[in-house]
Amino acid sequence: MENVSVAVRALDPITVAGLTTILGSDPGVTVTTSREREHVDVVVAAFEEISCQGMDLLRAAAADLGRPIVLAVRNITEADLLVAVECRVMAIVSRGGAADGRLVAAVRAAAAGTADLPPDLMGRLVDHMERLHREVLEPSNLTASSLSSREIDVLRLMADGLDTAEIARTLRYSERTVKNIVYTVTSRLQLRNRAHAVAFAMRAGVI
């Protein structure tokens, strides 16, 4: 199993020390203090809730290291969730469950390029964006125009939690076609991953 190099970010040294101990207990994870992106595979950040300082820390980590972020947090709002996704957060785990193996599993998933947003958080994000569309975009007669109808169909099913095979069956596409659609969207719009593509579509008000 390939070793994963992790940079830890938090607002206090006690949290940093705790995360370092949890992550360092796994033989396949190395905690690094390097600030060079070539020496870091994944960033782990932890907060009780995302304050302005916490959001600044996430933005700085995304800008400086450019690596996927795993966020351990106890409370998160819908607005914070959207910004977190834009800051390269690919996985979110409960702060209280960080020590039971879920944090290390999320780190490995992020290192492999797999996003992992809990269904309840994705549902809250969908609800938030539906309200935004209904209360802000529709009254102003605003719509998004950078996505085709079939791209929107795929992104909508992704937001509902379907995987590639399920999307292909639902839309009667091949799995290759679904993957090509996702690749085209993320490449054309310079989006980082599937979660970012879903967030973009939600923010644009098309799903």
TrEMBL record:
Domain (HTH luxR-type): residue spans on this chain: 140-205
Database matches in SMART domains: HTH_LUXR
Keywords noted in UniProt: DNA-binding, Transcription, Transcription regulation
Pfam families: GerE (PF00196)
Single annotated GO MF: DNA binding
UniProt-listed GO biological process terms: regulation of DNA-templated transcription
Domain of life: Bacteria
PROSITE patterns assigned: HTH_LUXR_2
PANTHER family: DNA-BINDING TRANSCRIPTIONAL ACTIVATOR DEVR_DOSR
Designated name of the protein: DNA-binding response regulator, NarL/FixJ family, contains REC and HTH domains
Natural source organism: Amycolatopsis pretoriensis
